[in-house]
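Following up on my earlier thread - several people asked me to post the actual chain instead of describing it. Fair enough. Here it is, all 240 residues.
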Amino acid sequence: MDMQQPVDVSVTVPVFNEIGNVDPLVERVRTTMEATGLSWELILVDDGSTDGSGERIDELAAADSRIRPLHFIHNFGQSAAMDAAFRHSRGRSVAFLDADLQTYPEDIPELLEKLENSGADAVVGIRVHRQDSGWKRFSSRFANWVRNRLTREDIADTGCPLKVFRGEAIRSIKMFNGMHRFLPTLLKMEGYSVVQVPVRHAPRHAGQSKYGTLDRAFRALRDALAVRWMQDRHLDWKLK
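Reply from S.P.:
Thanks for posting it. Predicted structure:
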């Protein structure tokens, strides 16, 4: 595969200790994207996994040149993994989802169609019929409320991992640690447009969640305050 040649869609996924999900993830992305007739690549960012996920990603990549592995030297976190994936992507459009398969790779074509038909620069998912525990749903709604309240936003589900972007838009965004939760807001700050669509949600069938409730609440507050500061200090000058 020519690494300089653009493709229609880059599917990007951070992977941290998801050995039970790597194979079904790759197969479902492959089946979904092949059905679209578009050219595509799957960028899997191994975020310092210790369970064999990185080795398995390399095996899958050796069998399919459309799979592109990136390996961090140790765990840097989701924002860093997303930044690496976006900056190594070649897609005219860039899709993002988590490796846990709680959102459906099969929903990517619908979001790509919405991106094309709406003229927007990003389409972000809203998880319907959440398949998480009651406490996790509550804490997610609370964190979502805090983020929207502080950033004066209306993103219905800031934590939904399933999103698609125009490649030039997402590659123009400067990422900071924790900013993966605020990508729609960061895009809007740079003049890009965002639309929201409902997507499906499934229970986790393998592996364990990497997020706790208390650390998420604290980070949600800290990061939302940082974004509010950036919004208030953002430069929006125009020449005559």
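The two ends are 46 Å apart (CA to CA). That should answer part of your original question.
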